[in-house]
Predict the 3D structure of the following.
Amino acid sequence: MSNNAQNNNPGFASASEVARLAGVSRSAVSRTFTPGRSVSAETRRKVLAAAEALNYHVNHLARGLSKEASRPVCILGGNLSSPYQSRLLEHLTRRLHKAGRAVMVINTDDGEANVRAALQQTLNYRSTATIVLSGKPPASLIEQCLQSGQQVILINRQGEFPNAENIDIDYSATMNAAFDHLIAAGCRNLAIVSSAARSPSMVIRETRFLAAAAAANTDVALIRPGSASYQTGVLAARELLNQNTPPDGIFCVTDLIACGFIDAARYEFGLRIPQDLCVIGFDDIEQASWLGYQLTTFSQPLAEMAEAACERLLSPCADAAGSQLFDARLVRRGTLRPAVNTKEMV
């Protein structure tokens, strides 16, 4: 084979180009790269040599367009750099890659017009399923996926779309537990620090906590001074702790918010945690376990939730619509006092 036969095309070489260079038929190239197909040793040698010279790779996407198990999966989500989202994304992509599925991730922070164009691209590639992460993806984008006939799996967007499949946390039980633990620790002036982003998962944490408080005839302050960020926690502490009767028990809808609140409470107001102020977060991100925080928080079983989402996608069944609920486990660290009564909560 001549050295001049190297592919000068900066794009991908085609099977037809490999066939011409090897001096064989197009079908011989296909048989060479299809496991179990018959091809002579000499033909195989020629085809593999030509493929190496041209840097040819089999187009598995095109080959698999008619096969459901070969089609790519779209993951739709925003704020992907946050600790929670990045961990969930890691679990999902690892599981899907293990199953041999290509993954297309669309960042919804790029603006709705760009996201719609990206979604159309996934449909052009015959993506038949979309996993929507909790957070910013607007309802209109999810409707677009459903109307296109895609299987749609929502994580932590409880009950928004009747034709979608849902993977959720049992927020009623979890927020009842959060409220009960603060009360058991002796807290009497409670507050929720949430996000102005109003993502579905954060809204439901607010509403379920408030419902638990209402059932116990307890007033709770609620503020949303900014995004789901560290700085929002700082701003919330400055607002709440400057009040004449500041709260002594705080539930933050994310750990990042809780970390900001703790730092401001300690270093700007001189408060001791948990002696003067109890704080509970949500998500159990890596920072929650750092020595500077030792944050009591709720841990979502992300690996199990990702596995459940992928199982629904990889092994769909006709009656799959509906919710699959998971428990969020309390991780007790150093920002919550022990229960003041004899029945210590676990």
Q: What stands out?
A: The chain is about 40% helix and 15% strand. The chain has three domains: 3-56, 68-169+302-327, 171-301. The chain has a mean pLDDT of 87.
